[in-house]
Specification:
Elements: H1 2-69, H2 75-99, H3 104-128, H4 135-215
Helix pairs in contact: 1-2, 1-4, 3-4
């Protein structure tokens, strides 16, 4: 009889060990994989935000240059407004490169287009800042600048799309880790219930044995 009680105790101890191991595995998996996934997801969302911001800034920069050409803005006001756009574009581009999460080809295309825009802007300014304004040269520079601006937005759009897709994939992976951990925790609860039932049965059995010994 004692052998049976001891065997039951060993089984209960084994069940508890498995439950503790599963609980540790589930906790460690969610923490390790979850933290890594959240970090990657955060970087992708930041990349998406920057790419969308660059699209807006490029449009604003282009519009400011067009306003200057159309004499809507005086040169001093144009310089201030264009300078602010240029500074913001440079800042966002530097942040994008620092993240190293954007598509390398798209980032390269974006930088090339932005450099072309800057060169054309300087050509336009030079044509309009001379005593005898060269409107033909300015018009040609502006036309090219508008074309390149459209081209600059395209890689920014690609970067945003790719980052958005990766962020969704990271969300899916995180949900999968959480689902696996939840299944493991459910199994842990089942094992703990089993261990509790076995403990109660063992205690009941021990009580019966003690009663039998007392009666004899």
């Amino acid at each position: 009889m004692k052998l049976g009680i001891r065997t039951g105790a060993v089984i209960i101890a084994g069940v508890m060990s498995v439950a503790v191991g599963l609980a540790y595995w589930a906790s460690d998996r969610v923490h390790t994989a979850g933290m890594s996934t959240l970090e990657s997801r955060g970087a992708m969302l930041q990349t998406y935000r920057i790419a969308q911001s660059l699209k807006s800034l490029i449009h604003g920069y282009e519009l400011t240059i067009n306003e200057y050409y159309s004499t809507v803005l005086e040169y001093s006001n144009y310089q201030k407004k264009a300078g602010e756009y240029k500074e913001s574009i440079d800042s966002e581009l530097a942040a994008l490169e620092k993240l190293e999460t954007g598509d390398a080809t798209a980032v390269g295309d974006l930088k090339t287009a932005l450099n072309e825009i800057e060169g054309l802007r300087l050509e336009l300014e030079a044509a309009l800042n001379r005593p005898d304004k060269n409107w033909d040269l300015a018009r040609e520079a502006l036309f090219k600048l508008n074309v390149v601006s459209v081209r600059a937005v395209q890689p920014a759009e690609r970067i945003a799309n790719i980052a958005g897709e990766h962020a969704l994939a990271e969300d899916s992976a995180l949900r999968q880790y959480q689902s696996q951990a939840l299944q493991a925790l459910r199994l842990v609860m089942a094992l703990l219930v089993l261990a509790g039932v076995m403990t109660m049965l063992g205690a009941f059995r021990q009580k019966q044995v003690n009663s039998s010994v007392q009666e004899t």
